[in-house]
Amino acid sequence: MTMFNSRRKSSLPSPSPSPSPASSSTSHPPSSSGGDGGGGKVATRVLVPIRRPSGMPNPNGGIAATTPPRDEASRMTKPGIRSSPHAKSMAMEDDAFPIVTTAASGGDGNRSTCPRTPKRSSARSPGKDRIISSAARGSLASKTPSMSGIVVDGGTTPGRGTPPPRELSSFASPSSSIAAVAAAPACTTTTTSTSPIRGRSGEEGEGVRVCVRIRPMSIATSDIDDDDDDAATAQPRAYALSADGNAIVRNSPTDGRGGGSTSEDETSRLCVYDRVYGENSTTLQLYEEMVADIVESVVRQGRNGTVFTYGQTSTGKTHTMHGILMAVGRDLFGMMMDDTRGGGIPSSFSPPHRKSLTTVRISCMELYNEELRDLLVCCGGGGTTTAYATTTSLPIQEDRRGNVQIPGLIERIVNDIDELMDAVRTAEGNRTVGSTAMNERSSRSHTIFGITYERREAMKAEVMHSLDGSGQGGSSSSEEEEEDKENNRMSKSVTTSSRKVITTASNLYLVDLAGSESVRVSGATGQRQKEGGKINQSLLTLSRVLSKLGKRDGGHINYRDSKLTRILKPSLSGNARMGCICCISPDFKYLEESKSTLDFATRTMLVRTNAKSNTKVEYDDGLVKEFEREIERIKRETARSDERRLQMEKALQESEDEIVCLKANIELALGRAKCIEREKTRLEVHLKKEICDLKKHNNELERTLIENESEKHILMKRQEDDRESYLRELKQMEVEQTLMAEKKNNEHQEKLKALSVEIEALRLGNTESVINLSNCVAELERTNQDLRGQLASAKNSNNAAQENDVASLKATIDDLTKDKLKLEQMLTNEIQKSMDRRNEAKERRRKFKGKLVGMAETLKDDLVHLSYQGE
Ligand SMILES: Nc1ncnc2c1ncn2[C@@H]1O[C@H](COP(=O)(O)OP(=O)(O)OP(=O)(O)O)[C@@H](O)[C@H]1O
After folding, report:
1. How many CA atoms lie within 13 A of 665 on its CB side?
2. Where is there biased composition of kind Basic residues (predicted)?
3. Which one is predicted more confidently, 213 or 739?
4. Cα separations (Å) of 593 from 313, 514, 529?
């Protein structure tokens, strides 16, 4: 409700075709009922808001409706309806609620010799006029019976008292009838084209209002002739049918596009309907002119209403019905709000002596292959034909009064347009659709949306008690009957103060019929063909029933031939105001099918209904109390649900805050993650480079290691060889030295022995021997000296060589391994040992020399002594 209120505050331009200063100041022809005739006539953007009726008298004298002026501009506001998951539905919303709509000029304005009546000004505004005009139509029609809106020879206006030009039965056969009408002279006046919806109310009740909607020629699929194989020579599709005011014009095949160039003798007017909507019309426009006041009488007068769409497959029935459903929801709850505010029916907020309770319930069912199923039951089949198997078929029952009942059908209570559209979306989602050559999402079933508007009102009443004992409490009848009865009883009754409950429950059925299809164009096979057969069969039965009803010959009407007619029986048989929207394609290709639809429309126009107000008055304090208790209970429930709603709103607010917080945190974390990611990427690049460098370095090291290893091996080998050869040489030298020393020693021993012998000889006084001995000593000394020199040089050379080798080995071995050190150590030890040995040899030589010196000294002393002795 709140949502609706807020929407009502805004104002947007409406598609009202009412003449405005702006539009009348232009040179365009006056706008017609919405048909553009396909003639590409001047389209005028109308920005004048529609003035809706501020209230309407109840012709039944029942409920007074003094609604305050409604902000009509807000009615054009796009309601905030959530988008439907149904692709088909989505496409329709803009059409149904245009922000700025285009009112196309109607049809071929040049052909009209009479100025057209502005349609909205007289048809819909204000509501009071509309109701009065309806009554006026009744009186006018009573003087002009049997007017059905068929094309009139001589251009007389249907619905204005001139009889039709031909028998309506001539339309029984589509082809023959259309051909016959087509052959008739073209109508030269179109003054009816924008007249108010005619009641065709010459007889009892009113006629079913019938309009024709021509869908746009689809550029994507139909603009180019499919039959022409050569795309270069392909011709744009010609328009077979177009709108001319409220008439359908058939163009000649050579006429090509539009009909703007159509000459009188080339074209022929087929039929005139209550309204004809051309390609550029909008669903909202159609709703306002065809359906809105049926909805209003459902809400305000308690009369039933039925609106159905009929036509060939893919001509826009579902498209139109979806837009109508949205507009119905908007108007229905708008009117309910007005009533609640006290503008119309007193509500539960009104003074205590009058209390009312209004409920809106919706049900949705589909008839698929003659099986009825509930579309508000979630079947989860996603609207495919397979979903059908998962839900049970509903039975159809009729009570003794002929009321149709469908036990088990869900009726969902809806409190605002959002809940209503939720239900519609659920139903549309569950609907059985299938793909055909003509429509990607073709409805394979008849869908019936039932909206029940129920209002219960309790008020104080003066109850008359009959003196003859016949009381009134608990009686139930219509309001008029009650009034009559009351008048009769007045004289012989006493009046007491009591309370009464007036219950008004009216139904609005919106029926989206499945498209009639011929296999010729739909190309259906298998399951689709079977479905198509069933669809055509039930449509044929409906057509037959309507035909019979139109003839009004009192013959038996067999509603039981199909479930569709069984369900629609209460409406068809009279207790409903009815509207029929026939959808056609303008394409030549589908001319036969369009003619058939027009024929159906013509037949339907002949049907009359007489909808009564469904009001029940009950006098019963107990009932009133019960009702009051119910109101109290509902109030409590409403308060509870308000509380729950507030809590939920609070929780929602909190979660929204939390979401904002979380979002901020997420943003932060994302920022951080991005930074980390960047850093990671940078590090990865860096690491990759490092790893690459390290690998290179490692490879180099490995190469160097291998080289070093081999070098080490070579060096070690060489060192080993050197060491061995050196040790060999050393040993050799030692052996040689030892041998030499021994030899020398032996020689010396020999010589010493010889010297001793000589010294002995000298002691015996031989000077010569002493001299020789001296020479020998000198010689010995020299030899000794030589030996020492040799030993020293040998020692020097040995030492130098060894040290050099050791140093070089050390230098090499230090770099390589510890083994080398060990070897060095060993070598050093060896050298040490050899040094020791050398030192020992030296010591021995020194001792030997000492001995020799001692001996020489001794010899010298001996010689001195000998010389002394000799002297
Ligand atoms: N007046 C229109 N304006 C724009 N698009 C339209 C109009 N009429 C029909 N269409 C588009 O044509 C396609 C077929 O329309 P839709 O499904 O309503 O046809 P249908 O008569 O219900 O077909 P079927 O009987 O096969 O279910 C849809 O995409 C719809 O949006």
Report:
1. 6
2. 1-10
3. 213
4. 9, 14, 17
Ligand 1 pocket by Cβ (under 6 Å): 88, 91-92, 95, 215-216, 311, 313-319, 439, 442-443, 514-515, 583
Residue 619 corresponds to which amino acid? Y
Q: Which two tokens stand for residue 295?
A: 């909805």
Centroid of ligand 1 to alpha carbon of 315 (angstroms)? 5
**CB-facing half-sphere around the CA of 205: CA atoms within 13 A:** 23
DSSP class of 379: -
Residue 626 scores a pLDDT above 90: no
Q: Among 433-437, 658-662, 787-791, where is mean pLDDT lowest?
A: 433-437
Distance separating alpha carbons of residues 97 and 324, to the nearest angstrom: 10
- Strand partners of residue 756: none
Please give the backbone phi and psi of residue 31, each rounded to the nearest 5 degrees, phi first. Answer: -70, 145
Say if the ipTM goes beyond 0.95.
Answer: yes
| Domain-wise residue ranges, the chain | 2-619, 624-870
Instruction: Check pLDDT > 50 for residue 125.
Output: no
CB atoms near residue 791 (< 10 Å): 18
The string of DSSP letters for 64-107 reads: -B-PPPP-HHHHTSPP-PPPPS-HHHHHHHHHHS-SS-EEEBPS
301 is in an annotated binding site: no
Report the distance separating Cα 662 and Cα 655, nearest Å.
10
Question: CA-to-CA distance for 146 and 608, rounded, in angstroms?
Answer: 11
State the DSSP string of 565-598. HHHHHHHHTTSSEEEEEEEE--BGGGHHHHHHHH
| CA 85 – ligand 1 centroid, Å | 16
Report which of residues 864 and 130 the model is more confident about. 864
Residue to mutate (ligand 1; options 318, 440, 441, 510; most atoms within 8 A of CB) = 318
pLDDT band at 624 (very low <50, low <70, confident <90, very high): low
* Residue-level pLDDT at 244: 76
Contacts of 351 (CB under 8 A, 6+ apart): none
CA angle 464, 467, 471 (to 5 degrees): 50
Mutational test site, ligand 1, from 89, 215, 219, 521, max ligand atoms within 8 Å of CB: 215
Q: Is 316 annotated as a binding residue?
A: yes
**Torsion angles phi and psi, residue 710, rounded to 5:** -65, -40
Give the DSSP H/E element, type plus range, for residue 605: helix 591-605
Residue nearest to atom 20 of ligand 1 (CA): 314
What is the per-residue pLDDT across 740-768, written as a single tens digit (0 to 9) for each? 877 877 877 787 777 777 666 656 665 56
Euclidean distance between CA atoms 696 and 693, whole angstroms: 5
313 is in an annotated binding site: yes
Question: Domain 2-619 has what CATH class?
Answer: alpha beta
Q: How confident is the model at residue 120 (pLDDT cuts 50, 70, 90)?
A: very low
CA nearest ligand 1 atom 23, residue? 314
**Residue 188 confidence (pLDDT) above 60:** no
Ligand 1 centroid to 433 CA: how many Å? 13
Tokens of 683: 């590090």
3 state SS for 156-192: CCCCCCCCCCCCHHHHCCHHHHHHHHHHCCCCCCCHH
Nearest to 600 by CA among 581, 586, 572: 581
Class of residue 704 by CB neighbours under 10 A (exposed 0-12, middle 13-18, buried 19+): exposed
312 labeled part of a ligand binding site: yes
Residue 719 assigned ligand-binding role? no
Q: Which amino acid is at 486?
A: E
Residues in contact with 198: Cβ distance below 8 Å, sequence separation at least 6, in sequence order: 137, 147, 149, 158, 159, 207, 209, 274
Ligand 1 mutation target, pool 102, 276, 439, 516, most atoms within 8 A of CB: 439
